[in-house]
Amino acid sequence: MVRKAKRKRQPLPDWYLDKPQLVVGEDFFLRAFWALATEKVMGSPIPHSKIVEYGERCGLDPAISEVLTIVIWKLDRTYSRYQESERKRKELIDKPSPAKRAK
């Protein structure tokens, strides 16, 4: 939708223009999440051991490592729910209507 608007030089949607501003440091958690998401086994949360290893590699204090674990697990849970809702939405879109199945 955004690419299409940019290509056609149309106004961008409000939801795109009103992106939240990241607080200093939040980008660390987002980068950590995307790096750790590669350690995930489908249907399972990102392993605690991998989050701890990541924190150690970054030189984090153990207390901050605990915060990292909580943030990563919350991001992981939220992203997993989003993926599931997108999968269901696509199933509904791709599902043939009863009229088409009757033909």
List the helices and strands and how they pair.
Layout: H1 2-7, H2 14-17, H3 26-36, H4 48-57, H5 62-94, H6 98-102
Helix pairs in contact: 3-5, 4-5
Structural summary, described in words:
The chain is an all-alpha fold and 103 residues long. It has one domain. Helices cover 67% and strands 0% of the residues. The mean pLDDT is 85.
Summary keywords:
67% helix, 103 residues, 6 helices, mainly alpha
Describe the global form. Answer: flat
Number of strands: 0
Radius of gyration in whole Å, from Cα? 19 Å
Strand content: under 5%
Average pLDDT confidence is 85
Q: In terms of per-residue confidence, which ranges show pLDDT below 50 for 5 or more consecutive residues?
A: none
Distance between the termini: 33 Å
In terms of quaternary structure, the protein is single chain
Please give the count of helices.
6
How many domains make up the coordinates? 1
Order of helices and strands: HHHHHH
Structural class: mainly alpha
The residue fraction in helices comes out at 55-70%
- Biggest sheet descriptor: none
